[in-house]
Design goal:
279 residues, alpha/beta, 7-stranded mixed sheet, 46% helix
């Protein structure tokens, strides 16, 4: 029944333009090509269906399963402010992490990617992925994702210190636990043994994703934005990934996108309550 009422998601919601700054960093700018599909994917992530979205993004299943029979209220709470005085930053941060996860699943071909946490303002790593070279771990990528009106301030005061902590090994216990849990979701027989054999200094890499406005939307602006990356994280440029999403008004746009996702959730709940069908 669920398959019968599941609709095909549209085209991939995001596209990417490569960017770089010599040997300092590399990455991409994101463009939103289909807001409706992006909103439905965010709605499904909020309701706990990140696996369904992941299959669509990997083109393993173009027609996703239907929405589950519950979880509507909790998903709405993730995407809705309590009242007009409620701080939007936690909601917007969660939505941007979901968008970043969608970007990762579109960009990465051979990686394990941790699903977004289903809670606002979770402490710890924003995102984590493991890239493979044949059967070996090639990179463990630590992700920081920030939806902000002040990207340079956020990168300089929060992201670089976070990366420095991982570079010095202060937070290796978090990294080991995260990688072990992520490997346990795969077909790996003995994730603990794999983690024990990892040479962390060799595989550790980083990815910062941030919203930008006009000030940092050009090549020169991005160089200013990510200044100091190569000093915070030394070594090969492959260790330093930088991603941007241009938004004229970050709060207004994310708020409107969240409202679209809530509308998807409302429609799914209404259809189920009416006749047990899914949209």
């Amino acid at each position: 029944m669920a398959e019968k009422h599941a609709k095909k998601l549209g085209k991939m919601p995001l596209s990417f333009t490569p960017i770089s700054s010599g040997n300092d960093w590399h990455g991409a700018t994101w463009s939103v090509d289909d807001e409706d599909t992006l909103a439905e994917m965010i709605a499904r992530i909020a309701i706990g269906q990140s696996r369904v979205v992941g299959k669509v993004l990997k083109k393993l299943n173009a027609a996703p399963t239907g929405f589950p029979k519950g979880g509507f209220a909790g998903a709405r709470a993730l995407l809705t402010l309590k009242d007009e005085d409620d701080d939007p930053y936690h909601r917007d941060g969660w939505v941007f992490q979901a968008i970043s996860w969608i970007a990762l699943n579109t960009q990465e071909e051979n990686a394990l990617i941790r699903a977004p946490q289903i809670r606002k303002a979770d402490k710890g790593l924003d995102g984590l992925l493991i890239r493979f070279d044949d059967d070996d771990v090639a990179h463990v990528v630590i992700c920081e994702e920030k939806a902000t009106e002040h990207p340079r301030q956020k990168v300089y005061s929060q992201v670089w210190p976070e990366f420095e902590d991982f570079e010095t090994g202060v937070r290796d216990h978090e990294l080991i636990a995260g990688v072990t849990s992520l490997l346990a979701t795969s077909a790996e027989d003995d994730p603990d043994a794999v983690v024990a054999d990892i040479l962390w200094e060799d595989v550790r890499a980083y990815r910062v994703a941030v919203t930008v406005g006009d000030t940092h939307a050009t090549s020169a602006g991005r160089k200013r934005l990510f200044k100091g990356y190569e000093e915070t994280v030394d070594g090969d440029v492959e260790r330093r990934q930088a991603e941007t999403l241009y938004l004229e008004d970050v709060r207004e746009w994310i708020g409107a996108l969240a409202a679209k996702a809530v509308a998807v959730i409302d429609a799914a709940e209404a259809a189920f309550e009416q006749d047990g069908a899914y949209v």
